[in-house]
Amino acid sequence: MKMKNEEDIIFFIQEDEWMMEILKTVKSFHLPDWWICAGFVRSKIWDVLHGFEGRTPLPDIDVIYYDCTTINEEKEKVLEKKLASIHPCLPWSVKNQARMHLVNNVSPYVSSEDAMSKFPETATALGVKLDEKDNVLLSSPCGVKDVLNLEIKPTTYFQGCTKRMKIFEERLKTKNWQSTWYKIKLFRNELWQNDKSL
Description:
By secondary structure, the chain is of the alpha/beta class.
C-alpha cells in the first residue's frame, strides 16, 4: 500500500478501529497537551508500507502530556493503572513531559511537541490525538519524510552531539527494527560530524 503524506497517515489511523478506540480512551482522561506518540504511530506507518496484514506488537503505548502544575511521577503510575483497568492487555506508559527533562538531564521542555522534537529518531518524533469531534490530529515536529521513506535518522537535537549520538546508536542495536521491517534504511556514518559534545 502507498502512504505519501500526513493526510494519508491520518486516513489509515482513522480507519483503524483498534487505534481509534485507544485514542478515545486516552482522550477521556482530559490530560493537558496529551498525545500518543512514538511507536504507536511509527509502527502503523511501517506496517502499512510493508503491506503487513497483521499488526506488529508494540512494546509499549506511549502516552505523553504536559502539566507544570502537578509534576509527580506517582500521578503517571496512577494513570497507567487506570488505563490498564480499561484495556488490561496493553503495555501502557504515561509520562508528563514537564518533568522528563530531569530524567533526560536536559533543558526543560516547553510542551509535549517540544519534547517530541527532541526524541532520538525523526521517525519516532510523531504523535496523534483526537480533537473535540474525534478527528485525528497528527504532530510531526521533524516532518514525515523520513518515516514515509523508511529511513532512520537522528533528530536535529541528537545530530552533532557525541553523547546523544551514542544513545541513538545504542537504540539502533537494541530496537533492531530491521528484523521486523526489512525495508528500513539506517543512516549513521555522516552524522558524527560537527561534534558539539555536552
